[in-house]
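For reproducibility, we list the full input for the calcium ion complex.
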Amino acid sequence: MHPMLNVATKAARAAGKIINRASMDLDLVKVGTKGPNDFVTEADQAAEAAIIEVLKQAYPDHSILAEESGATGQSDHVWIIDPIDGTSNFIHGYPCYAVSIALQVRGQVMHAIVYDPVNNDLYSASRGEGAFINNKRIRVSKRIRTNECLIGVSYPAGSADPDVQTRRLISLNANSAGVRRSGSAVMDLTALACGRLDAYVACGLQPWDLAAGMLLVQEAGGLATGFDGEGVKLEEGNLVAANPKLLPQILKMVA
Ligand code: 2AM
Ligand code: CA
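The corresponding predicted structure, in tokenized form, follows.
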């Protein structure tokens, strides 16, 4: 494992401990609101602080882009952090959320760690070196018949264009074996990377929701694009992903 992945793993596990402790008594977790359907808890903040402390200790000069504390630093090495992806699930005790840490170097995501503290699963990837769950290689599914495919979708509750979302959902649902909306983009991307989902469609997300999971999918043999079939622009937050033979059919469904 690359040394930077080792440090990110240590950071993610420290966050996971905080999250698991908080999940044992959710009644005590204080919940704040950042916007409509956009929540933050003390666990998000404490987990993020723990991640940043570990990363900063090893790499004091690197920059940070984190969901709760924003952007700091001027380096071409940027750690993109989501301390809890799936905060709404976490608040409800719905066991689908994860810690997401990616390292972007000169604009390209090079390393990724996703830690699922509920199942104690660690997902890791470095560009060009494959994707892993608990150090075992993972690959996207080979399904290419759309009527056999499970398709994950993410869009923030309330904030996306409801008509467009509804049209896309109807189209995906009518042409697949089923649509799943887990409430955690990162967990959907790990599911895609493992072949549990065959395709994934997301819109209106933030860079920290997608950065690490996208590298996992690519290193597991998947292809990820924007809705136009061109490269993903993390700052736009839109992504369609699947194995390379399936992807064009999914792009048609959401066009
Ligand atoms: P979060 O839990 O880290 O906020 C839900 O399908 C997905 O959308 C989750 O990955 C969730 O990440 C993200 N999400 C929730 N609210 C959002 C918002 N206001 N803007 C962008 N992404 C959001
Ligand atoms: Ca989050």
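The domain at 3-137 is CATH 3.30.540.10 (Fructose-1,6-Bisphosphatase; Chain A, domain 1). DSSP finds seven helices and 15 strands in the chain. Both points were considered when choosing residues for closer inspection.
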